[in-house]
Amino acid sequence: MLQEDVLREVDKGTLLPLMEEFYTIQGEGFHKGTAAYFIRVGGCDVGCHWCDVKESWNAGTHPPTAIESIVENAAKYSNTIVVTGGEPLTWNMEPLTNALKANNLTTHIETSGAYPLTGIWDWICLSPKKNKLPEERIYDVAHELKVIVYNKHDLIFAEEQAAKVNGECILYLQPEWSVRDKVVPLIVDYVMKNPKWKVSLQTHKYLNIP
């Protein structure tokens, strides 16, 4: 396939820059402890300084992969499919989720919401970032709001974001891993004073799994 044809298919979402795919246990948020197949798509310009997958940022370093191949692999392992990144909404997610749904698979997405929402999702985890705020529509349909806490000022940001989501959205505060010893006491105290929030931990890192 010629390069311009590849780029055209990537734009359509029939090819995606696949960084990695793996079967593991969901470690975060509402579905923690659940077996799930993760599809990590390359490409992100949100630029969080504490991001632990910065190698995902440059989409050009990850091979454009046919969604048929991605779905075939996913269907071998789990009914629950988590699409993450990078920022998956950089790309058109409709072809991928249509194919996943055609195989009776449950679709989850983890996104900053920085780009328009595409695709059919059974669960939307919105993890907004200050650098590039979410598109307005996603606040109405997010199932969980997960705010990463690096310092105490992130709690102010968390409240600003919580004011925008729908009334059914579950609210989580999650310590950024590299400063967890410092911010966990802050989060615990905050959640006890503001019980509409819940604590999310990266339990997969404690379990030493992907």
Describe what this molecule looks like in 3D.
The structure is a single chain. With 210 residues, the chain is α/β, with parallel strands linked by helices. It has a single domain, classed as Alpha-Beta Barrel (TIM Barrel), CATH 3.20.20.70. It is built from seven helices and nine strands, in the order H-E-E-E-H-E-H-E-E-H-E-H-E-H-E-H. A nine-stranded mixed β-sheet has the order 3-1-2-4-5-6-7-8-9. The two termini are 33 Å apart. The mean pLDDT is 96. It is an enzyme of class 4 (lyase). Keywords: 4Fe-4S, Iron, Iron-sulfur, Lyase, Magnesium, Metal-binding, Queuosine biosynthesis, S-adenosyl-L-methionine. It catalyses: 6-carboxy-5,6,7,8-tetrahydropterin + H(+) = 7-carboxy-7-carbaguanine + NH4(+).
Q: What would the CATH topology be?
A: TIM Barrel
Q: How is the biggest beta sheet arranged?
A: 9 strands, mixed
* Number of separate domains: 1
Q: Which ranges are low-confidence, i.e. pLDDT below 50, for 5 or more consecutive residues? A: none
Q: How many DSSP helices?
A: 7
Pattern of helices and strands: HEEEHEHEEHEHEHEH
Q: What is the straight-line distance between the termini? A: 33 Å
- CATH structural class: Alpha Beta
Helix content: 25-40%
Derived structural class: alpha/beta
How do you describe this structure in short?
With 210 residues, this protein is an alpha/beta fold. The chain has helices at residues 3-12, 67-75, 94-102, 136-141, 153-162, 180-193, 203-206, and strands at residues 15-25, 35-41, 64-66, 80-85, 106-111, 123-126, 144-149, 170-175, 197-199. The mean pLDDT is 96.
